[in-house]
Amino acid sequence: AIIQAYPYALRAKENGYGRVPLHIACHSNASYECICELIKNYPAASLERDSIGRVPLHYALSNGAAEEVVEALLNAAVESFGESGRRQVCSATDFNGWLPIHVACFMGASARALSMIVKAYPEGVDAATKKKSTPMTLLNGISLSPQKKSSLEAILLRSQSKAKHQFSAASARTDIDRVARMSDETCSRGVTLEIDEDETSSL
Q1: Among 34, 38, 31, which residue's Cα sits nearest to residue 66?
Q2: Given pLDDT bands bounded at 50, 70 and 90, which one contains residue 160?
Q3: For residues 31 and 35, what is the distance between their CA atoms, to the nearest angstrom?
């Protein structure tokens, strides 16, 4: 009823930190139903940043929000900004250089919540805060059951391994392309590559 009476309130920012209602709801650990109602009426709020650079996802994760809340915030970003929306939300850094993934690891989020964040912005796995903390160092600094810590570490390590594999494959393709270009240039100039007899003795 309040939203219908004054829909602009969903975009209004508070004095001080410049938060919209969705920020405040996530910061106050509001119910899933409340957050969904705010999202339904103003999905773009999922990417609103307050005066210290935080999006609602930062606050939701800091309060140990349910996986459904994390998913709803990411889906809202897609609804408003297309497929890049999830990446935009998960790549938002606050004034201390904290991404949502840093908050998720520091708070010991669920494996599913962390997986969603990593999938949206895999580069965040290696990102460091202004104090040089990475998601892995933050995760290792908190107290969790061995089983849960292992499952979260596995998600981070799996993403790092995949990124390294993609980088190696890209480097290999670049090297192959470079050799191919050199070969084409050599042939086009009519240059013959000669090998000294001494050099062949080691072959």
Answers
A1: 31
A2: confident
A3: 6
Length of the chain: 203
Structure-block tokens of residue 116: 């969603």
Q: Which single residue is written with the structure tokens 């999922």?
A: 46
What's the CA gap between 24 and 46, in Å, rounded? 12
Of the chain, the percentage scoring pLDDT greater than 70 comes to 76
Count the alpha carbons within 13 Å of 125 in the hemisphere toward its beta carbon: 23
**30-54 in b/e burial notation, b at 16+ Cβ within 10 A?**
beeeebbebbeebbbbbbbbbeeeb
Q: Among 44-53, 126-135, 189-198, whose mean pLDDT is lowest? A: 189-198
Structure tokens at 98: 């904290």
Distance from C-alpha of 48 to C-alpha of 63, rounded to nearest angstrom: 18
Dihedral, 32, 33, 38, 42 alpha carbons, nearest 10? 90
User: Whole-model pTM?
Assistant: 0.78
Sign of the four-CA dihedral 184, 187, 191, 193: positive
Contact predicate 45/21, CB 8 Å = yes
Using an 8 Å Cβ cutoff, are 27 and 37 in contact? Answer: no
CA–CA separation, 70 and 76 (whole Å):
10
